[in-house]
Amino acid sequence: MTAAGGILTAAAGVAAGDWREAVRAAAAALVAAGAAGEGYPEACVRVVEANGPYIVLTKGLALVHARPEDGGLAVGVGVTRLAEPVEFGHPENDPVDLLLAFCTPDPDAHVGTLAALARALSAGLADRLRAAPGQEDMTHALKEALSDA
């Protein structure tokens, strides 16, 4: 995925009382950007309700997503940095302060975006997003990381 080929969003200091609010906020940014349909945030919550906190990939980081048919309209990636971390119930990686949300319009794009995010995270994307002073810096870090992926 190249940054030019997708919709990117960033939000810092987002308040969430629990993991459901955090997931909804992260996915709602994709809806607001036009990358996902209105039902996408609830679909993302249902993924965690059905499968548990497997989306918490590493210390403090959750990868919010649902299936393309659950509302993916375009390739979109968003980062949400919470004002206060929330618990997902993951035995090792809670609490979560950073959420990467993504959506895609089809399964091929889903796999490609997931692979691009995995490469970017392996190259230190989460640390850069946490260190970014504000939303513009977060968007720039995301764009830079995904343009190379």
Task: Describe the overall structure.
By secondary structure, this protein is of the alpha/beta class. Helix 1 runs antiparallel to helix 2 and helix 4 runs antiparallel to helix 5. The termini are close together. The protein has five helices and five strands, in the order βααββββααα.
Please write out the topology.
Elements: E1 7-14, H1 19-32, H2 40-51, E2 56-58, E3 61-64, E4 76-86, E5 96-103, H3 107-122, H4 125-131, H5 135-148
Parallel strand pairs: 1-4, 3-5
Antiparallel strand pairs: 2-3, 4-5
Helix pairs in contact: 1-2, 4-5
Structural class: alpha/beta
User: Any idea how many domains?
Assistant: 1
Helix content: 40-55%
- The CATH H-level superfamily is Mannitol-specific EII, Chain A
CATH architecture: 3-Layer(aba) Sandwich
Summed over residues and divided by their number, the pLDDT gives a mean of: 93
Defining traits:
149 residues, alpha/beta, Mannitol-specific EII, Chain A, 5 strands, 23% strand
Give a short summary of the structure:
The chain is α/β, with parallel strands linked by helices. The protein has helices at 19-32, 40-51, 107-122, 125-131, 135-148, and strands spanning 7-14, 56-58, 61-64, 76-86, 96-103.
